[in-house]
Amino acid sequence: MATSVSSELDSHLLECPICLEQLQLPKSLPCLHSFCQDCLGTYITKELSGKMMSTTSFPCPICRMTTSPVQLAESRAKWAEQFPTNSLIQDLIQLKERSSEPLYCKPCQTKGNLNNPASYWCKTMNENFCNICKLELHDIIHTECDILDVTGNHSKRLNRETSAPRCYQHGEKMVRYCEDHQRLCCNECVIEDHRSCGKVPKMKEYCHKVKAGSQLEDMQAALKKGNDRLNS
């Protein structure tokens, strides 16, 4: 997956035409050419250097289209900040950076399965999920997230269903998770089959617990790494 995504992203699409490096905070001009915000700001300042302060426009560095900022009252050094950020390029850069290393399911890692491949990336939560964890952990609580399928040759946005999965036995929404049996269940299942189980929290509570545990492990790992450096 990493090779396919990286190879499909044309390096020139993510490259600033001024500094020839990967775009940083890409700003798009009305002609749709994009540049690093700092590079564009430096270019505007140099391009208008020596010209009258009444000058209200500058040419695009690529196509030379005459371009004016939204707020002429601001200093020329801040004109670049006024142009819209190219969020598409930002997403592509983030996806390219993520594709340079294997993607593993975050909830599975929290439960000790460190190398279970991820099938989906939630852009909103910035976490990876396998098929099962997406269904049983993510989809029940997070119904409006941007989800990308990262298993094929083309990462694609999914059309999300906003309803929680239903119990095949009772037809009710599966809104709880039995930690003893490690499975989703509806309220009827809890009454019939899970009354003796130790923990059957609501899915929202369980998701928060999993996420908190993951954050704690990350903090512990960072502290251990810092301690090892101090002792070395």
Write a structural description:
The chain has helices at residues 2-8, 37-47, 79-82, 87-98, 106-110, 131-141, 187-193, 203-231, and strands at residues 26-28, 34-36, 58-59, 66-67, 120-122, 127-129, 147-149, 156-157, 176-178, 183-185. The longest helix has 29 residues, at 203-231. The protein is an alpha+beta fold. A hairpin with a 4-residue loop joins strand 5 (120-122) and strand 6 (127-129). The radius of gyration is 25 Å and the shape is elongated. Helices cover 37% and strands 12% of the residues. The protein folds into 3 domains: 12-88, Herpes Virus-1 (2-Layer Sandwich); 102-149, Double Stranded RNA Binding Domain; 176-231. The protein has 8 helices and 10 strands. It starts with a helix and ends with a helix. The strands form 4 sheets. The chain has a 4-stranded antiparallel sheet. The protein has a two-stranded antiparallel sheet with strand order 1-2. Helix 6 packs across helix 8. Keywords: Metal-binding, Zinc, Zinc-finger. It comes from Mizuhopecten yessoensis. GO terms for molecular function: zinc ion binding. Residues 16-64 form the RING-type domain. This is E3 ubiquitin-protein ligase TRIM56.
